[in-house]
Amino acid sequence: MASPFYFVFLLSVLLLEQTYASPNYREALSKSLLFFQGQRSGRLPGDQKLSWRFSSGLSDGSSAHVDLTGGYYDAGDNVKFNFPMAFTTTMLSWSSLEYGKKMGSELQNSRVAIRWATDYLLKCARATPGKLYVGVGDPNGDHKCWERPEDMDTPRTVYSVSPSNPGSDVAAETAAALAASSMVFRKVDPKYARLLLATAKKVMLFAIQYRGAYSNSLSSSVCPFYCSYSGYKDELMWGAAWLHRATNDPYYTNFIKSLGGGDQTDIFSWDNKYAGAYVLLSRVCCPSQPIKIHRHNLASPFTNTFLWQRAVLNKDNNFEPYKQAAENFICKILSNSPSSSTKYTPGGLMYKLPQSNLQYVTSITFLLTTYAKYMKSAKQTFNCGNSVIVPNALINLSRRQVDYILGVNPMKMSYMVGFGSNFPRRIHHRGSSLPSRAVRSNSLGCNGGFQSFRTQNPNPNILTGAIVGGPNQKDEYTDQRDDYARSEPATYINAAFVGPLAYFAGGRSP
């Protein structure tokens, strides 16, 4: 029997739905993908819609005599950090794989956003044998400047990992991105998909053979910006899980089992992948959705009628522990679960950490929505203590987080730039805050942009679709450019949000 908490929770959600109109999820989905155009590095195409951006980083890689142009700037700076970029790519790919049928015309835009990253990641993996390039741009030098990406005059230092300077975390995440994206392109561009998958296998083998954290190899070049705080075991599990899904090769099954259990985490992010791996592996653990198969009705030889029967794909018990781990993770998220370790603001937003909290909200919301989808397909529930958790409980919580980000919150502010009438106008983002080259063609230099940084004027360029770090634990948000912990957007915030937006834009059916 379901606990009283569940019925109270469900009633509160139903009452809430009667008090406001749902945001336009399809518009939000479109804008969430458009955002990635604002983060592009390299030579921009003729169909670039955010016209205030221009080509940049055209000599990236030249110091190492390789072509490393392309990819994305991670956030409001002009550095290409491959660790979060690869995670961004994996999450965009997972979104397309799970929710592509609900995306409509935005599926093609999702593929474009993915390919902008994978083209670059392929260069990083294939440019030099025995080496994986993992970033471009000196972050310490870059962060001392406030200049447009088109004007960069800071060192475009190239960073790599190798057998003598390993980086299992960034390599396995790169493998995950390439494997996941290979499935996105499998039908629409088989040749490209094969290249992605073949490269993913090689990079994953590199990650397995040469163990070590890239933070140790690259030190101040990646820390404190994107240190691998959780270590590299989570990425090894995550990368192997994606290669297992892409290939169904028993090698990856055995490798995952050899890693043993992972952390009982209550977070999911560009750094800590355990929860994502648990949910992904639970997909093959649990029975798949019943499917229809047909046989000719031999009793009626003069007709072309068919008998329909329902079949369930075999369950893979190898991954049962990860299904349990996924449910333990979710129990840590639900507010009234006896094992909950997640705080909520008075307005109902998950609150994990002060630094860019919405990155955790979007990532966890993706997992809630996706696990609920798997539960519906398998017609399953699970327990948190004495509470029976049904799929709609997770969906309703996901929707509450999505709606909060889109403006249904105490501030009545959309935390997606350009969505609604009240959204952040002074985001911590160099290109958005400085005059476009279309307006001012001469270079501003390293220090020339700080006047724009300090002004209280709104940013002149709207970075449509960007999701900022978000409000504090009291639902308060001050629209200040220098408050980077709350006002800076990032690719990995948006990437995880695409899936839930697609789910709600396309209706709630699995």
Automatic annotation (TrEMBL):
<feature type="active site">
    <location>
        <position position="479"/>
    </location>
</feature>
<comment type="similarity">
    <text>Belongs to the glycosyl hydrolase 9 (cellulase E) family.</text>
</comment>
<keyword id="KW-0961">Cell wall biogenesis/degradation</keyword>
<keyword id="KW-0326">Glycosidase</keyword>
<dbReference type="InterPro" id="IPR033126">
    <property type="entry name" value="Glyco_hydro_9_Asp/Glu_AS"/>
</dbReference>
<dbReference type="InterPro" id="IPR001701">
    <property type="entry name" value="Glyco_hydro_9"/>
</dbReference>
<keyword id="KW-0624">Polysaccharide degradation</keyword>
<feature type="active site">
    <location>
        <position position="428"/>
    </location>
</feature>
<keyword id="KW-0378">Hydrolase</keyword>
<feature type="domain" description="Glycoside hydrolase family 9">
    <location>
        <begin position="25"/>
        <end position="500"/>
    </location>
</feature>
<dbReference type="Pfam" id="PF00759">
    <property type="entry name" value="Glyco_hydro_9"/>
</dbReference>
<keyword id="KW-0119">Carbohydrate metabolism</keyword>
<keyword id="KW-0732">Signal</keyword>
<feature type="active site">
    <location>
        <position position="488"/>
    </location>
</feature>
<dbReference type="InterPro" id="IPR018221">
    <property type="entry name" value="Glyco_hydro_9_His_AS"/>
</dbReference>
<feature type="signal peptide">
    <location>
        <begin position="1"/>
        <end position="21"/>
    </location>
</feature>
<dbReference type="InterPro" id="IPR012341">
    <property type="entry name" value="6hp_glycosidase-like_sf"/>
</dbReference>
<keyword id="KW-0136">Cellulose degradation</keyword>
<dbReference type="InterPro" id="IPR008928">
    <property type="entry name" value="6-hairpin_glycosidase_sf"/>
</dbReference>
<protein>
    <recommendedName>
        <fullName>Endoglucanase</fullName>
        <ecNumber>3.2.1.4</ecNumber>
    </recommendedName>
</protein>
